[in-house]
Amino acid sequence: MDKKKREKLEQLYWKMTEWFAGDPKRIQHFVKVHSFAELIGKGEQMEEQEQFVLEGAALVHDIGIRPGEEKYGRCDGKIQEQEGPAAAEKLLKELEFAPEEIERITWLVGHHHTYDNIAERDYQILVEADFLVNYYEDGIEKDKIQKSCRKIFRTETGIRLCETMYGVTIKISETWAQDNIREMEEFIESQGIYIRQ
Ligand SMILES: [Fe+2]
């Protein structure tokens, strides 16, 4: 990534540290999410611009926690998604991010707790990085990590990180394939669709 872009991300890093001033837990959270997102993005050979947007989104992804707590006294995923984009937009504008970068980053901030329709790579990687950190911070048990990681993770680098960090096996196994076939068969049956072999 060119020097200017790297510097911009550093400025954003500082801004987010100030945003969560006095709250080291939140600061250390976004630092870890950013670091894993960076590593996964590089491992997946992202283009420079895509990587820049991903890292920007990782730094600001939880920005909605603070306005959420101030307004509603809570900071669950939905509130974060609701409150985050406007706060992120303000910050990114101050740092003169380009309009299309702001658009994409704020969209990611507004969707990072929605897991049912992840289509793009930056979105997928942001979600994986956040999960990698949350599993640990929330003290999630190993078998639950394995299950949710199998469901959510798609990138080779993210899967490798999850397997290495938590000592679980995520790689698509024969059982996984069979489970999927079974799920598909049940779905077909429930829909009353008949497929000739
Ligand atoms: Fe997060």
Automatic annotation (TrEMBL):
Pfam families recorded:
HD
Q: Where is the HD domain?
A: 26-123
State the protein's name: HD domain-containing protein
Q: Can you name the source organism?
A: Candidatus Eubacterium avistercoris
Q: List the lineage, top down.
A: Bacteria, Bacillati, Bacillota, Clostridia, Eubacteriales
